[in-house]
Amino acid sequence: EATAKRKDAHLDLCATGDVEPLGNSTLLEDVRLVHCAMPELSVDEVDLSTEFLGKTLRYPLLITGMTGGTERAGVVNRDLALLAERHGLAFGVGSQRAMAENPQAAESFQVRRVAPTVPLLGNIGLYQAVRMGVDGVRRLADAIGADGMALHLNAGQELTQPEGDRDFRGGYQIVEQLVRAFGARLLVKETGCGIGPDVARRLVELGVRNLDVSGLGGTSWVRVEQLRAEGVQAQVGAEFSNWGIPTAAAIASVRRAVGSGTRLVASGGLRTGLDAAKVIALGADVAGMALPLFRAQQAGGVEGAEKALAVILASLRQAFVLTGSASCADLQRKPRIIGGQLKDWLATL
Amino acid sequence: EATAKRKDAHLDLCATGDVEPLGNSTLLEDVRLVHCAMPELSVDEVDLSTEFLGKTLRYPLLITGMTGGTERAGVVNRDLALLAERHGLAFGVGSQRAMAENPQAAESFQVRRVAPTVPLLGNIGLYQAVRMGVDGVRRLADAIGADGMALHLNAGQELTQPEGDRDFRGGYQIVEQLVRAFGARLLVKETGCGIGPDVARRLVELGVRNLDVSGLGGTSWVRVEQLRAEGVQAQVGAEFSNWGIPTAAAIASVRRAVGSGTRLVASGGLRTGLDAAKVIALGADVAGMALPLFRAQQAGGVEGAEKALAVILASLRQAFVLTGSASCADLQRKPRIIGGQLKDWLATL
Amino acid sequence: EATAKRKDAHLDLCATGDVEPLGNSTLLEDVRLVHCAMPELSVDEVDLSTEFLGKTLRYPLLITGMTGGTERAGVVNRDLALLAERHGLAFGVGSQRAMAENPQAAESFQVRRVAPTVPLLGNIGLYQAVRMGVDGVRRLADAIGADGMALHLNAGQELTQPEGDRDFRGGYQIVEQLVRAFGARLLVKETGCGIGPDVARRLVELGVRNLDVSGLGGTSWVRVEQLRAEGVQAQVGAEFSNWGIPTAAAIASVRRAVGSGTRLVASGGLRTGLDAAKVIALGADVAGMALPLFRAQQAGGVEGAEKALAVILASLRQAFVLTGSASCADLQRKPRIIGGQLKDWLATL
Amino acid sequence: EATAKRKDAHLDLCATGDVEPLGNSTLLEDVRLVHCAMPELSVDEVDLSTEFLGKTLRYPLLITGMTGGTERAGVVNRDLALLAERHGLAFGVGSQRAMAENPQAAESFQVRRVAPTVPLLGNIGLYQAVRMGVDGVRRLADAIGADGMALHLNAGQELTQPEGDRDFRGGYQIVEQLVRAFGARLLVKETGCGIGPDVARRLVELGVRNLDVSGLGGTSWVRVEQLRAEGVQAQVGAEFSNWGIPTAAAIASVRRAVGSGTRLVASGGLRTGLDAAKVIALGADVAGMALPLFRAQQAGGVEGAEKALAVILASLRQAFVLTGSASCADLQRKPRIIGGQLKDWLATL
Ligand SMILES: Cc1cc2nc3c(=O)[nH]c(=O)nc-3n(C[C@H](O)[C@H](O)[C@H](O)COP(=O)(O)O)c2cc1C
Ligand SMILES: Cc1cc2nc3c(=O)[nH]c(=O)nc-3n(C[C@H](O)[C@H](O)[C@H](O)COP(=O)(O)O)c2cc1C
Ligand SMILES: Cc1cc2nc3c(=O)[nH]c(=O)nc-3n(C[C@H](O)[C@H](O)[C@H](O)COP(=O)(O)O)c2cc1C
Ligand SMILES: Cc1cc2nc3c(=O)[nH]c(=O)nc-3n(C[C@H](O)[C@H](O)[C@H](O)COP(=O)(O)O)c2cc1C
Question: Mean pLDDT for chain C?
Fold first, then answer.
């Protein structure tokens, strides 16, 4: 199966390849949180919980959609979903296209046995959704017992992919239909190039209630495809490997654009709990991560991923304590220092 | 013939010499276009066409004037003109001074056989034009069936050239005469040091309708001459090898200064389709390139140049798609992020 | 005794370990004082004196609290207190927790024999003070004949310390009680992560009259503890080794926040007399240093510390002369150039 | 003779030592002049002349005071004065203190035989002038047939010099007396640490009509003395080797402060004709240089210096042509781009 094969090539590249091009940046290094010398908090008292997809997270974290469709992918999904369940995070499976094409692939997306209560996101590409229609998408969500459906945008990747889409029309139309079908259970996400304020505003006007800006600075899918491409596409891909809206610029500008009624996930290049705290300070409700947990799982199984996650959770909590923030809303009221190129982005976006 | 010999020395230096001094920059790296996650475009549907010299380009690209006068130069001209014809670009020959001095040199400037429909630009230096008078210039244009005439400004080069001009008076006067003779068919261009808003405004007031700002950041003709010069001139040339208005600063400030009635080409250091998209975003109607296509042709003939051009065209198109721009006018309405030293230039110019 | 052992491990790390993480900065390099070509001063005439804890310093310098509790610590205290006495500086002992726990440790904090007239600061941690109560703290101060009591804040360190505090509640309450007990003799200090304007304002509202902002850029106690920690805590500690408000940002913003009624010490990363002059120019009444004098003492005894101090004092005086400042108040009226990241901090704080 | 010996040690250090500390900068690299593609000038027609000390310079250049008092110094003075005469520059001798102390030293300051018409500046330190009184200073000027007298300020150097002054009082008083004696023939100069707007304003209010800001970025006399000093002074000197107002900041801010009535020289770190053009653009009437001509003379005698000077003059002229400036006043009306740290300096000074 072509889709499955491609997915395995992707996993291999992501596990060990240079998929985070040097020089790409989230611009989170241009954000400094401000130390509070008198936190007046107990570490355990800090309330990191947040609402997401109608459930309550213990930590404002989402393991964003990555994989599915092969046995190896199934292990990744179950290992990471298990951790999400254990720590009260949200979890997303990867693109369910393979599953739509081949029912046997469905098994690898099933995580409810290990993660009965996590807010669970299905996943499908925008142009796949166009092709399968609203009912097809609904079936994918139902088949895995998902709380919501992530619709991913990846035009940059498609253009770099030999077999990729070239026609990006009709996107808002299908979004509109999916909004009608899924309501507050729909999430629209990018995959590393970022959603900016213009697109965000238009999506919110259509009724989208959850966005994952997934900006530049982490896994670059243009880069992943470039490593697989040849000829003109490989060279153009190389030029566009740093294309996108840096995550810090995306989340801050989108929050400004959409107001407080929309649930915002910020992902793309977050690597530490401190990074997660920064995107929350900039306006995210939930911080998303993919690559670091995937790599930890690949290197050390569920135990390896647990260790990596423990550091992230402790660091996130510490950032709250040391800014004197008792909750996410509290952190968002604290001062933050914005410097460097991020100032330039925010002056315009 | 002195002119022909000098031209061949120039070609050799440009083909393999260090003619783009390290540290010189177009400042296009201080410009970031903004990703559009929902382009609502089909790749093929993007309309890159633009009007130039009364004809329609399929791509807003000009291969700027480089050569002529020797057999080798004739091959370069024909190879690149052929590509311009094939892809719907504009093309310019190099300085026709050699041709004015020696009728036998004319052959190397003839590209109409391979490029019957391209918007074709003749080329002569400002001070050559002073010497040969309006009729002489008209004869040059007619002799190659040109659609327009490029008048090049290169005071920096002249000063570094042992045999160069030292008297730059009377320039606006000859421009005025040429405007009367050529009207909208006249284009005034720099050659890598840039036209700024003051000069642009004055030229437009005299009736010039096409400008190529040709700014700093690519081929430096001060540098080329410096490599040939000796003594004081070589040392002064070294100091001035980074002299000029960076291309990004030139195009943005000139567009602001002259309004929308003037056709603007931006050249000087553009190396990719993404660079071309950036100058269009900053206000150019047409993006110009010389060195990269010359070098590709020298290294691989017409085939080599075709390959280099294919990457440039695909990258340019991709930049349009990924900013959600259906046309040049559309791209110019999109946000763009301006940072670094470019901010300083644009605060003053 | 656990406390004593930990203190000795701390001393060893501070004496030779990498406790000032590369990349951490006070941002004092973003401050330039302005040369005065006509100082109209005699070097000896410059009046560097300032009031502190009811006494008069000859130099606006405080050797901030570092140690006590072991024999080695006692030598450090006496050597440095001797220098303070000799040159008219203020001196602080390290945390007296060891002394509260073990009366025999008291001896190492006794410096009055060698420093009968220096303004002397006792020292205790905020949460230790909570535990021992106001009377306990008063006893500590009285036992060493202190002129004032330093209450240190170190939440960053505690969180990185395996045996550290996790509950930071009730801090302002104990401060309020200590204010009642100590009045203008109480000083609240950080330990390298900085006090910002919000905390400073609240402390001043409670009646605190002396603050040592002790900001980021020098000894990092998160780092010291990280070098001792293991597992999750070591990794989180590594992430937070550059956490804090840079000293230059802290002192300038706190001075702005609290007005002139509060005595401000600026410490954290000051390494030269010029650094000291800069923090005074930014609003400090007194400049504080710990590590450089500790290290000089460890390497060369009292003589070594004397030599290091002589350079600091001469450099401080020279900065006054070359800015044409006859006194601290005078220096604070002179222009100072603020650049780089410090501008970003001061735009927000 | 102590003064003579010290002067020879200085010459040796300046000839080959590291007297321009790395990292010190004039900030002239933060200034960009703007290319004029249509200069409408003939190279020879550019009028670089300017009035200075009642005479007319062909180039707005001053070889600033360096030496005298030994035979070697005499050669330097005569070689460089000869060049000044030949090219129509101004010339200054070094400190005439040696001459005041020892009549035999006078010979080395005599340059009128080789430079009968140059605007010639005598030279004495401010505090030397205090000691010898107005009549003594007048005798020094008369003895060499000077057109004016340079009074040098060098507090930074004095403090780093073992035998240096420590009392800088009474400076304005002696300036006032010298103004009465010399009128428009008096010039007050720094020696590499810069005169800022406050000092400049006060000097102008006392009647001083000529200032040489001599800022940071070139020869550092703090550094020269530091290389000769020991102990505390050497260490403090090292800290202050980058002390001062960068030349670009000094000249721009002083011109703003004093208006057009005062003749301003800008020196300190100018190394090329382009540097000279930049300081003129920023408001200088005359550009001054010391070290580069001294070094060229030491390395290659009068011929070596002539070669170095030829490059400087050609580069200066080229900068005028390529900015389209027919005169100094013209250049000062052209736009100039200000970036980097220079913006920070000019925001405050
Ligand atoms: C191995 C891997 C597979 C992914 N597959 C998908 C996918 O199928 N669907 C999707 O929406 N995003 C996918 N992503 C993108 C992530 O959800 C996320 O948006 C992006 O990687 C940025 O986050 P990161 O820098 O933390 O990896 C994948 C990412 C990785 C690393
Ligand atoms: C080999 C070569 C020859 C050139 N000859 C001419 C010329 O004859 N006339 C002219 O107007 N410009 C000439 N140019 C300048 C180009 O048209 C263009 O303005 C400049 O090179 C900047 O573009 P680039 O950085 O893409 O090379 C020449 C450039 C090159 C590389
Ligand atoms: C060896 C050492 C021990 C310290 N112990 C204490 C302490 O017991 N109490 C305290 O308030 N600060 C303590 N500090 C912190 C210092 O007082 C000061 O706030 C901090 O080190 C920043 O200054 P520096 O960069 O000059 O070292 C200690 C610092 C050092 C280097
Ligand atoms: C060798 C040497 C000797 C100098 N001696 C004097 C002096 O006697 N009097 C004076 O006013 N400046 C003296 N200066 C300073 C210069 O006049 C000038 O202000 C300073 O060197 C900065 O210019 P530069 O960077 O081009 O050298 C001397 C400089 C040099 C290099």
Answer: 96
Q: Ligand 2 atom closest to Cα of B212?
A: 19
Give dist(CA C302, CA C308) in Å, integer.
10
For chain B, 349 residues long, the average pLDDT of each consecutive 10-residue run is 80 95 96 98 97 98 97 97 98 96 94 98 95 95 98 97 93 97 98 98 98 98 95 96 98 97 98 98 98 98 98 98 98 98 98
Kindly tell me whether chain B and chain A come into contact, counting contact as 3+ Cβ pairs under 8 Å: yes
String of DSSP letters for C244-255: S-BHHHHHHHHH
Q: Where are the beta strands (DSSP E) in D180-228?
A: 186-189, 210-212
Q: Closest-CA residue in chain A for B40?
A: A169
Residues A113, A119, A122, A123: is their CA dihedral positive or negative? negative
C163: number of Cβ within 10 Å: 9
Residue from D104, D121, D103 nearest D112 by CA: D121
Report the alpha-carbon angle D194-D195-D198, nearest 5. 145
In-domain check, residue D122: yes
Beta bridge partners of C90: C62
pLDDT grade, residue A1 (50/70/90)?
low
Residue D198 tokens, joined: 């406050």
Residue B35 has its nearest CB partner, among A170, A239, A244, at A244
Other Cβ atoms closer than 10 A to D161: 20
Q: CA A59, CA A307: separation in Å to the nearest integer?
A: 16
Fill in the DSSP letter of residue B234.
H
Q: Tell me how far CA of residue C289 lies from CA of B121, B209, C146, C149, D232, in angstroms.
A: 71, 67, 19, 17, 19
Question: Residues B186, B192, B193, CA angle at the centre, nearest 5°?
Answer: 100
Q: Would residue D33 count as lying in a domain? A: no
**Token pair recorded at residue B238:** 């070294």
Contact: C322, D155; criterion CB under 8 Å: yes
CB-based contact C91:C63 (threshold 8 Å) = yes
Q: Give the burial string for C187-199 (b: 16+ CB within 10 Å, else e).
A: bbbbbbbbbbbbb
Distance from CA of B312 to the nearest CA of A (A): 8
Cβ neighbours, 10 Å, residue C159: 25
Least distant ligand from the CA of C72: 3
3-state secondary structure of B335: coil
Q: Is D313 within 8 Å of D44 (Cβ atoms)?
A: no
Residue B59 contacts residue B273 (beta carbons within 8 Å): no
* Mutation test residue for ligand 3: of C80, C187, C291, C298, the one with most atoms within 8 Å of CB: C291
C162 touches chain A (CB under 8 A): no
Pocket of ligand 1 (CB under 6 A): A 10-11, 14, 64-67, 94-95, 123, 150, 152, 189, 191-192, 214, 218-219, 267-270, 289-291, 294
Residues of D in contact with C310 (CB under 8 A): 232
Nearest to D187 by CA among D267, D271, D275: D267
C-alpha closest to that of A162 among A242, A230, A223: A230
CA of B11 to the centre of ligand 4 (A): 46
> Residue D217's domain spans which residues?
2-16+56-314
Contact assessment for residue C149 and residue C93, using Cβ atoms and an 8 Å cutoff: no
pLDDT at C1 over 80: no
**How many structural domains is chain A composed of?**
1
pLDDT of residue B35: 98
Q: What gap in Å lies between CA D199 and CA D211, rounded to an integer? A: 11
**CB-CB under 8 Å, A170 with B40:** yes
Nearest to C201 by CA among C292, C111, C128, C262: C262
Q: Which backbone phi and psi does A31 adopt, to 5 degrees?
A: -110, 130
The closest alpha carbon to D144, from D94, D71, D70, belongs to D94
Which CATH number characterizes residue C322's domain? 3.20.20.70
Contacts of A6 (CB under 8 A, 6+ apart): A163
